[in-house]
């Protein structure tokens, strides 16, 4: 009898979308593989000395562009610095830029998009037109203007400030994309009967936006966000290459790829290793985003 | 089919819902920055009725007659342009936010499409508990799940399915979930906006019978909107026929169905398929010509005159009021209202 009761109470314990999504994620190998990879990269960013004891700034010019060997697994770069150490140490700047810019962009863009869809009228016009103006600006041009204005080569801005500015620039120029996706997703359910039903029950704007519109917006925004991590890490590389983003002596994958790009025919490995790390990171985020999106849609379970 | 007369409420009871001269005009605007209004869609144009506890008012009419707009105004989703809606004597158009929230406990709605009226990303438990979360003082949070399961049982679903998602249910079951949500706050009035028209015919009867059972159990008053005349007759005590935003005829179910006096009601009723072969040949259909005129530019005088075979000069100049006409026992908005249905008139 008590066993039966226990069974009933477990089957009826309160469940919601997030509990079910978590249960679903737990059983997916893709989720665990991508999570372990992401954790590994975050660990690399936080404690690079766990992975390598070689100083990434020690240069031995006489051994410039030496091939990979037992001593230097990934070889040596043009200035004779250890590529393995530089790749490990480069994770920090790249991952900070990629993650922070994605997080801020998604939050701001998602919130503004939902607000635009929910409020409609003037707020919608204002947010949408502002976004279009920013999107009309060529990305690289906009970034160059902002970064040279606030952190020009002569300004002597420290690495922390430059990273913040790079993140800020990427966010400013990219939130309209997320806002657009969020707005259209929220707008498509704004007039759905279940939102009307919630309003008829007396639900306020916050409940409608966060309980009913947000879950519908999450799926496309998460997928886009996971791709955005990749875009931002490579955008950081582009800006570094142009000399307006992070610059030596800061170590980042973007800086490494842009430095090595000129010697791709003489020393392929110089480009290959940082690029491989970048690709695996991006792949891990994309897989995680995909798994979360699937788990959040009850129909795909 | 005709036992509805016996279910009628005590006629002396105070009305739970009083609607007077309800009007909803949607302005038609042009321009983005400097909007100018040049006309209005007259979705609902002067509707009045009373609803007593435990009573069912059926509202029938074709698409675009303003039925759904009427429903939205009744539950406060749309504000009326003018007129009053009194729930238990309080005018809901004049309430402040707090009062409006409180009013929602008394009047709830069942939606037409059970596939869009439940949030696909919420469990059935979350859907039915939402009313309690919004009105937090109704029930302590520890008792909400239990009440949700009781409600599932009341509407004929398995209470153990509380953690399932809407897509795991059939259309009829989903509609029952919608009914459970509407019942959660124990309202005295339910507005049903075509609650069965999206369901299979075999399921329609089950849901209708559930609504009748719930009415008896909880003393609910229904405003039952539909375009299916036989469904409306089955559940309604009184019926009003709507055309272009107005009630053109009102009466008890027998008065309307057996003694329709307005030409539009007669035409509507003649379109109901007759299941008995006997006498089918002698019945004639009234075929109306043309479409419903645009509610943005309704005809002068009687709104039905453009499609009416009885229309004369007076119809285009004088707007007929909804009053009891000679030779009839219930209100009708026609200058030439007739007694018993005489289908097969001059066509």
TrEMBL record, chain A:
It is a multi-pass membrane protein. The chain crosses the membrane at residues 30-51, 95-121, 133-153, 159-178, 217-246, 266-292. It comes from the Bacteria. The keyword Cell membrane applies. Its main location: membrane. Residues 91-289 form the ABC transmembrane type-1 domain. It holds the Pfam family BPD_transp_1. SUPFAM superfamilies: MetI-like. Keywords: Cell membrane, Membrane, Transmembrane, Transmembrane helix, Transport. It is found in: Cell membrane. InterPro entries: BP-dependent_transpt_permease (IPR050366), MetI-like (IPR000515), MetI-like_sf (IPR035906), OppC_N (IPR025966). Belongs to the binding-protein-dependent transport system permease family. This is ABC transporter permease. It comes from Nocardiopsis coralli.
TrEMBL record, chain B:
SUPFAM superfamilies: P-loop containing nucleoside triphosphate hydrolases (SSF52540). Keywords: ATP-binding, Nucleotide-binding, Transport. Residues 319-347 are annotated as: Disordered. The keyword Nucleotide-binding applies. Residues 17-269 form the ABC transporter domain. It comes from the Bacteria. GO terms for molecular function: ATP binding. Pfam families: ABC_tran (PF00005), oligo_HPY (PF08352). PANTHER family: D,D-DIPEPTIDE TRANSPORT ATP-BINDING PROTEIN DDPF-RELATED, TRANSPORT ATP-BINDING PROTEIN. Belongs to the ABC transporter superfamily. This is Dipeptide ABC transporter ATP-binding protein.
